[in-house]
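User: Predict the full complex structure for these chains.
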Amino acid sequence: MDTKTLILGQKNKKTWIEIHNLKAIGQMVRKKRKKMGMTQAEAAGLCNVGARFMSELENGKATMHFDKIMKVLRSFGFIIGISERL
Amino acid sequence: MDTKTLILGQKNKKTWIEIHNLKAIGQMVRKKRKKMGMTQAEAAGLCNVGARFMSELENGKATMHFDKIMKVLRSFGFIIGISERL
DNA sequence: CATAAATATTCCCGTTCGGTAATATTCTGA
DNA sequence: TCAGAATATTACCGAACGGGAATATTTATG
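Assistant: Here is the predicted structure of the four-chain assembly.
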């Protein structure tokens, strides 16, 4: 893939991870949070959500509000994309 | 981009659209639904959600449950992806 | 243009989200 | 191993989601 990106001059090509459920998102969020060396409480403060929300998000609770999830993802430097199945 | 995909033999490369809010998703859903020649009511039935939900989704209501949004997207042949901001 | 079809909005209602605080449980590092 | 830190869960409560039906509004059609 490195050769490919060099050939095309696309050194900064984004890598998309397909998401099938909220559990997967929760895992990504937790991993990133730990990488940043933060507790859930600190992360909640950063994202301006409650500690409870952060805990439930990381544990993959399915029925959370889309806008709040987006808020956390954005604060953590993630972006969401939509594509069509091939 | 066409030349690029041919060079790499990646004719089936997914194209990701970055999403910043639920409004954008709603627009995509509506566009797809119309393309499929369905009314909101029919689409709601297909996705097993209420007509009200479909209407609100298409109009970009922010506080909807993630799992239900995902359900509709999946029924419409969309996939969700996460990437990191560069 | 009139009317039917489609969509948006309101109503009623049961359920649940999520903030905050408290408490129970689990994890971590010395 | 154990104490403290971190996380998960529970309790209380107000706000609001969403199903289904009804109604208002908008759009499409002949």
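The longest strand of chain B covers residues 78-84.
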